[in-house]
Structures are given as structure tokens and as C-alpha cells.
Specification:
Layout (H helix, E strand, L loop, with lengths): L5 E4 L9 H10 L13 H18 E5 L7 H9 L2 E6 L1 H22 L6 H18 L26 H31 L3 H25 L4 H13 L14 H12 L1 H7 L4 H24 L7 H6 L8 H16 L6
Parallel strand pairs: 1-3
Antiparallel strand pairs: 2-3
Helix pairs in contact: 1-4, 2-4, 4-5, 4-6, 5-6, 5-7, 6-7, 6-9, 7-11, 11-13
């Protein structure tokens, strides 16, 4: 299996309110993304992939080779994961990208080894279904996740193509990040209008997407430490593949999402002591950071610096990747408490 270029919309142009999703709903109404999951046949997955590609093509007016105003790091991350950008109906493009990225992961998971738990798959499939419904496929569902006895027997499956899995997991994470941007933008708009019901619905969707993102992170790193140390990390650090010291937090989609968090500080601060939906969203966010820390410990360990720290400083005083990530986690959680992230 070889991954093709995945086209995504520019995150700044994603819809911020329900009217912005109306056009996408009309475009998507004539297409049916059949539910797929770990128990789907190759034919069913191929059908879903074709439908996703039709949706994707329906939304695109033109592709963008070099997005205006992007930093070298933002462009390099897209190159690293074979992600391209397109203009047109952003929500429709995202719907097609979500379907494509999800089918990629399901095909990989059912043909090679994976150690994700049934709960991880439940989180991933629930988030994907809610993302597609959010964008305009009303009532869309994905196939029910496999129960423990229906998960692929990893003892009987071949080892995964680790670099491909690392790419596919990141691309799924990209699409879920964009869906998070849409849901939190809807939350922002509904809150500003005093529409509490719509705000509650948007935050509930964002919670499901955050849980799915946490599971996607685990999938991205579902291979042995030695492969990361001997193959993936050196490849990331070696030009011309990308820039030395690249980090996922330098991605354009991540920057747009974190700016939304900053804009929502007053709202989060007001909700922090009173709202159960806020507490669920915070718990899902904490789980994502916990999974990120787990992956950091697995691949980098407690002492080594991250790629970013290693590139920025050649001194002996580099802080470890684990410490840098814990500091970043505290800063991001401060935003959810209504405080500045510095």
C-alpha cells in the first residue's frame, strides 16, 4: 500500500458557523460514504475510498503549491506527510479528506499488526462519525468498532510498514485537527450569540474529536522503538526531506487550533467550575497530552531532547523531550482555565 497525496483545505478558510456548512451539505447530499471499520471487506473499503475521492474532487476549485504567508516549517511538515492544500468549498474538501485518511488507516490496521485497544477504536470511529455528521453528512455513521474478540489477531498478521503507518496516522490526525477547528469555531460563534444549545452540541462534538485525536496519536506510534530510532527520526532530521528540528507543533493547522484556544480563554474560564461538558472536553484534552507524553517516553526516553530542542541548541543544557512536553502541556491547559499560556 502506497499513500497518495492527501489534499486538505487551508485551515484559515474552514467554516466558522452553520451557514458556512450549508454549501457542503448540499454537495455531500448526493454522495454516500458507506460505514466502514475493522471488519469491512476490501471491496467495502475500496467503495468508501472512491466515494471519498468523489467528494474531495467536488469541493476543489484549485490546488495550491505554496500557501501564501506560510513559514518554511509549516510547508515542510506538509511535504513530510504528503499533504497538499486546495481551495474551494473547504468543508467538502475536508469531508473527502476525512474519509480518505480513515480508510487508509483501516486498510493498514486490518492487513498488519496493531495493538490499539477496543476502546481506542471506539474513540476513533465515534470521532470520525461525528466529524462527518458535523460537516454535512447528517446522520452519517461509521461501522461499529470491533469487540475484543473481533480485533485482528496481531500474532497472525505481518509487521506494519512503520514509516507508512507513521505517515498515515499523522494525516488522520491532521484531518481530525481541522474538524476540531470547525467544531470549536461553531462553539465560539454559538457562545457569542448566546445560543447555549448549539454551544453545548459543538463542545460535545469537539470532545469526541479530541478523544479520536488521542487514539490517532497512539496509532501513529504503534511500532517498535528501534524503528523510530534507526529509521524515522534520522529521516525526519535529514534534508531535503524536511527541515532539521521539525516538530508537529509547528504545523499550520496546529497554529490555527491553538489560536482558537487562546481566543476562547474567557469562555473556558467562565465554564471551568460549572459545566459538565467543559469538564469532559478538558478530560479528553488531558488524555491527548497523556498519549503524547507516552509516545515521547516510548521513542525518546526521559533524557534525550526533542528534534526541535536538538536543532535549536547545541549546548549541553538542552532540556529533555519529556520535560519540554510537560511544560507545553501545562501551558496549553492554562488556556482551558482562562489563563495565558506563558
Amino acid at each position: 500500500m502506497a499513500a497518495e497525496l492527501l489534499l486538505l483545505p487551508l485551515p484559515e478558510l474552514l467554516p466558522t458557523d452553520r451557514p458556512g456548512l450549508t454549501a457542503a451539505a448540499g454537495t455531500l447530499g448526493g454522495h454516500d460514504l458507506e460505514p466502514v471499520g475493522l471488519s469491512s471487506t476490501a471491496s467495502e473499503l475500496a467503495t468508501c475510498r472512491r466515494a471519498a475521492q468523489v467528494v474531495l474532487s467536488a469541493g476543489i476549485t484549485r490546488t495550491i503549491s505554496t500557501p501564501k504567508g506560510w513559514s518554511a516549517e509549516e510547508q515542510a511538515l506538509d511535504v513530510l506527510f504528503d499533504v497538499g492544500r486546495a481551495e474551494g468549498d473547504s468543508a467538502t474538501i475536508l469531508a473527502g479528506a476525512l474519509g480518505t485518511a480513515y480508510v487508509d488507516v483501516i486498510e493498514d490496521a486490518t492487513s498488519t499488526r496493531t495493538t490499539l485497544s477496543p476502546q481506542d477504536w471506539r474513540d476513533l470511529t465515534d470521532g470520525m462519525g461525528q466529524a462527518l455528521a458535523l460537516i454535512g453528512l447528517t446522520g452519517t455513521e461509521v461501522a461499529p468498532p470491533a469487540t475484543a474478540d473481533r480485533l485482528p489477531d496481531i500474532r497472525r498478521l505481518p509487521a506494519c510498514h512503520e514509516r507508512l503507518r507513521w505517515m498515515l496516522g499523522h494525516r488522520l490526525f491532521y484531518t481530525l485537527t481541522q474538524a476540531l477547528i470547525v467544531s470549536l469555531s461553531l462553539f465560539t460563534t454559538a457562545t457569542s450569540r448566546g445560543d447555549h444549545e448549539a454551544a453545548e452540541q459543538a463542545l460535545t462534538t469537539a470532545t469526541a474529536l479530541m478523544r479520536a485525536s488521542a487514539a490517532a496519536l497512539l496509532y501513529t506510534a504503534d511500532f517498535p522503538h528501534a524503528v523510530y530510532a534507526d529509521d524515522i527520526r534520522p529521516n525526519v532530521m535529514r534534508p531535503p526531506n524536511t527541515l532539521p528540528g521539525i516538530s508537529g507543533i509547528q504545523g499550520r493547522d496546529h497554529h490555527v487550533l491553538i489560536q482558537l484556544f487562546r481566543d476562547l480563554r474567557p469562555v473556558f474560564g467562565a465554564l471551568s467550575g460549572t459545566s459538565e461538558s467543559y469538564q469532559r472536553f478538558r478530560a479528553a484534552t488531558e488524555r491527548l497530552f497523556a498519549n503524547h507524553t507516552h509516545i515521547c517516553d516510548k521513542f525518546v526516553g526521559p533524557v534525550k531532547p526533542s528534534l526541535l530542542m536538538e536543532a535549536r541548541s547545541r549546548s549541553k543544557d538542552q532540556i529533555s523531550a519529556r520535560l519540554a512536553l510537560r511544560k507545553l502541556t501545562r501551558r496549553r491547559l492554562r488556556l482551558l482555565e482562562g489563563r495565558a499560556d506563558y
